[in-house]
Specification:
single chain, mainly alpha, two-stranded antiparallel ribbon, globular
């Protein structure tokens, strides 16, 4: 009896001791670590990221062709000089307007379906511009540019779609897609712009080729596999996602505000200088059409060529440091363009402008991407790109009147003032985070 009692006590003692030991607890969630399920790891889809980069290259070819030639095509229809940049402004404005409806399209059609709709609208817009060129109709060229802009809003969202495909490294995903713009920079103001006399109507041949590129864009998008939600009825060990925050709560984050400001600055400063450049080179300073297209091609190529290096720099130094580098490139832009009006000055100045845009835009995209969750993404992306492209379109529309009022050299002083304001905003962010 004594032996059995001793065995029972010895069996009970470890249990009592173990019961007195508290299980290991995660202090944030207050649940045992062993019971806390981790989120499923989604593998990177490099193939689909590169397909999105190819689709962006096709879309950006249309955009660069429009930037390089829309103002010149509009000038052939005889509007007032101040209205020549209106088609380009509509191309940008409609990108902002389209972003308001993009979350609805994504909820109804899925992200891939929304992208395909945008590419099809690109075909329609280019065809309307072709008709406007044949009929010498300023109104039709404006309508076609607006439809093309609505299409391009969907293409601008590819960089956010790429983050879903490469969740392990969002800056790299963004930079890879934007790097596809190098192809668009060479095709648009380079190869496509040379087709201005391919058809009897000036510039019509350019937009026939742009329509064909939009068809290629559709074919590439059909091959992209964008991840969606879990399949109905499928079991999942993943925890339920947290309810999305309100848009106001997200937008009140200092980094979100600064990121959107930097994205807006990248376009506003660029459009102030870039939008009137083709007209200034051709009509005011008498440079050849080939020199104008070469200048625009170099600028747009450098808008995207640094993207892989920019992504690496963001990963190592952070987005704020990269943005400061963009402002330095902006200062170089206005100094060179203020110093002279030869072809060399225009080529070098617009090259620095392209680098400035790349550093501000890629870093701003990476910063804003870090301020929201996956479920909050569509509405934040819509507001971000909406603000960016409406402000961009406004500056495009204002750029020629500003140049007409103060002259080309003094326009560079206006650009410098905007760059200094951008630097001041970054300094305020640095001071706030240092506290």
């Amino acid at each position: 009896m004594e032996g059995e009692t001793a065995k029972q006590e010895s069996a009970v003692m470890p249990a009592v001791e173990n019961a007195n030991v508290a299980p290991k607890v995660d202090q944030e969630a207050q649940v045992p670590v062993a019971e806390k399920p981790g989120p499923p790891k989604e593998p990177d889809d490099f193939r689909s990221v590169m397909l999105l980069a190819g689709a962006w290259a096709m879309a950006f070819s249309t955009m660069t062709s429009g930037v390089a030639t829309l103002s010149l095509a509009a000038a052939t229809t005889g509007p007032a000089k101040e209205l020549e940049t209106m088609p380009l402004a509509l191309l940008l404005y409609m990108q902002g307007v389209a972003n308001a409806g993009l979350p609805f399209e994504v909820s109804r059609l899925g992200r891939k379906g929304a992208y395909l709709l945008g590419a099809v609208l690109g075909v329609v817009g280019c065809c309307v511009v072709v008709l406007g060129c044949f009929l010498k109709s300023f109104a039709l060229i404006c309508v076609g540019a607006g439809i093309a802009g609505y299409s391009l809003a969907h293409a601008q969202n590819y960089r956010f779609g790429a983050v879903l495909l490469m969740p392990s490294n969002p800056p790299r995903a963004i930079s890879l897609v934007l790097f596809g713009g190098c192809v668009g920079a060479l095709l648009g103001p380079g190869a496509l712009a040379q087709a201005r006399n391919m058809l009897p109507a000036d510039f019509a041949g350019i937009y026939v080729l742009c329509a064909a590129l939009n068809v290629v864009q559709v074919l590439l998008l059909l091959c992209v596999k964008i991840p969606g939600g879990p399949k109905p009825g499928a079991a999942s060990d993943a925890p339920a996602p947290a309810p999305p925050r309100s848009l106001g709560e997200i937008m009140r984050q200092p980094r979100c505000i600064i990121a959107i400001a930097m994205l807006g600055a990248s376009y506003v400063i660029m459009m102030l200088i870039m939008a009137p450049t083709p007209g200034m080179m051709r009509k005011v300073y008498g440079h050849e059409y080939s020199a104008t297209t070469m200048t625009m091609m170099g600028h747009m190529f450098l808008m995207f060529a640094p993207s892989p290096l920019t992504g690496m720099a963001i990963s190592r130094a952070g987005p704020v440091a990269v943005m400061v580098g963009g402002c330095i490139a902006g200062v170089a832009t206005v100094v060179v363009l203020w110093a002279g009006t030869t072809v060399v000055h225009f080529v070098a100045g617009l090259a620095f402008l392209g680098i400035m845009w790349n550093l501000l835009f890629v870093a701003g995209t990476a910063m804003v991407n870090a301020t929201y969750t996956k479920n909050e993404g569509p509405k934040v992306q819509a507001v971000t790109d909406g603000v960016v492209f409406i402000s961009s379109g406004t500056m495009s529309l204002m750029s020629m009147p500003i140049v007409s009022a103060v002259g080309w050299p003094s326009t560079q002083i206006v650009g410098l003032a905007l760059i200094l304001v951008t630097l001041l905003v970054l300094f305020i962010l640095f001071v706030c985070e240092a506290r």
